[in-house]
Prior knowledge:
This protein is α+β, with helices and mostly antiparallel strands. 31% of the residues lie in helices and 37% in strands. The chain has 2 domains: 5-174, 2-Layer Sandwich (Alpha-D-Glucose-1,6-Bisphosphate, Chain A, domain 4), CATH 3.30.530; 176-349, START domain (Alpha-D-Glucose-1,6-Bisphosphate, Chain A, domain 4, 2-Layer Sandwich), CATH 3.30.530.20. The chain is elongated.
Amino acid sequence: MTIFGDISLDGSRRTVTVEREYATTTADLWSALTEPERLGRWLGHYSADGDDGGYRLQMGGGFPVVTGRVLSCEPEKRIVVLWMFTGEAEAQLEADLVAHGDDHVVLTLTHRRAQAVNAAVWGAVWEDVFTHLDRELRGEEEPGDLGDRGYAGEAADPAAFDSALEEYRRREAGLTPARMVRADGRSGVHLERLLDAPIDQVWDALSRPDRIGRWLWPVVEWPDDPARERSLELGDTFLLGDSNVPEGTHTMEVLALEPGRLLSFTWGPARSAVTFRLAEQDGGTLLVLDQDAIPDVFGAGRLRSAPDFAAGWHSLVDGLTLLLEGLDAPRREGLWDAAYEVYSAQDAAD
Length: 350
């Protein structure tokens, strides 16, 4: 699919940029972007909130309320706002209008500080929002209750939304690729990811049963702890469930542990080591993952090799990222699919 935008790294977060040309004037497009009555037909119900440029925006369809503040406004040229969707960290939106002749305008939306993994969702959302905006500019959107029939209630083009989401996920996966390590017919993985969370929170997600089971695999057995309350310790053996392997579980033995810094345990039929290292970086936590090289393994009905291993750890760290951000993502199985396409292409090119 051809999309109108792109996605790039912004430290531990992402920047999503979407651009589209409309057959209208800058005055008409500016009106659609800023007048509450028109906003209510294609984006959401807008209301001022306070005297300092604050606002509330209800996008409908059961979506939480967006809150923020207008930071900069140049009529018919540019507007910048703080944007905080309930449950997400504060981001920033910038809309720029550039006239092309007398009757065409290019609108560029830059969504800065979008949270990782869900940034791809925002790419697909803005693509779809721009289609609703096009309908408004053409006079095709009708007045009514946005919560019943507007943007968030139903995508303008559900198939296009799904295709855009897949493409943005592939592009985001390609921003933070793992390295497939090959030696003597065996394959390993080296992955580095900057996480938008302090080390203590990341460590808890690696070592506590109530956290590890929410991003890695479900906890089946936890050492010396029927209540599953204590953190991992050196020498512990624990079981995590994985329906993709013949046995249905992984038996993990803790090989090395330095609280807040390092955790290494065995993994898979070959009992190879997977090691997580943590370090503070740029206000977040740098996670470095190394899976020792192993032979191809049978799983989920077929022989799995280097791209599978890389995509597996990549999408699991995506799950860790979402957990740390307190978010979920639609069609989470698509995270593995997107990563696998990246690594399959890389594998074919090598």
